[in-house]
Design goal:
The complex is a heterodimer of chains A (111) and B (115). With 111 residues, chain A is mostly beta strands. Chain A contains no helices and twelve strands. In chain A, the strands form three sheets. In chain A, strands 2, 5, 6, 10, 11 and 12 form a six-stranded mixed beta sheet that branches. A four-stranded antiparallel beta sheet of chain A has the order 3-9-8-7, with no helix packed on it. Chain A is globular. The N and C termini of chain A lie far apart (41 Å). With 115 residues, chain B is mainly β. The chains are: A mainly beta (111), B mainly beta (115). The interface between A and B is medium-sized, with 22 and 22 residues.
Amino acid sequence: GDSVTQMEGPVTLSEEAFLTINCTYTATGYPSLFWYVQYPGEGLQLLLKATKADDKGSNKGFEATYRKETTSFHLEKGSVQVSDSAVYFCALSERNTPLVFGKGTRLSVIA
Amino acid sequence: DVKVTQSSRYLVKRTGEKVFLECVQDMDHENMFWYRQDPGLGLRLIYFSYDVKMKEKGDIPEGYSVSREKKERFSLILESASTNQTSMYLCASSLEQRGGVDTQYFGPGTRLTVL
């Protein structure tokens, strides 16, 4: 079945550092790809998404590009802030199927 | 803004009790989902529903049941709670897939402790 693998955390960065969180997927068809973020004490919220190969999703300074050839959707941000501290989930969905999530990566940004 | 609300943020129950977790969405979404979130395991799908009175098993339905009598409300039921059901429970909804893919909107979660 479909699956998502993302890098283990926790990831600890200093403010203004560059962030990459790796995500690779396995799917039988052509899934849409998502990054969700969970801030402390809250539910998940959509950060960005991409629905086809070579699409780039972006939001709040975060970016991810749908790479079909490497089955990847890595999350990047050029300069992280303390307020970016959260758990990040990569996910995929094929037509008419619920989301499949990775296990999450906890990011801590220190001032 | 879409709002998904869950009846409790924190809940403590005893082994063997029947537990109801309620979820309500206010945007006329067709689809609703229940997940549990555990450290190191991420989110795992328990049950979902694409329409009123419809339900589908997810990846880990054992020990749970659901009810969807009205479009806006999706209840998760633990018939006889056990300690291994101690977890964070997250409800989500999405508009309608229509053969495509929709963004899911999540509630704040209910942290359930079974003693």
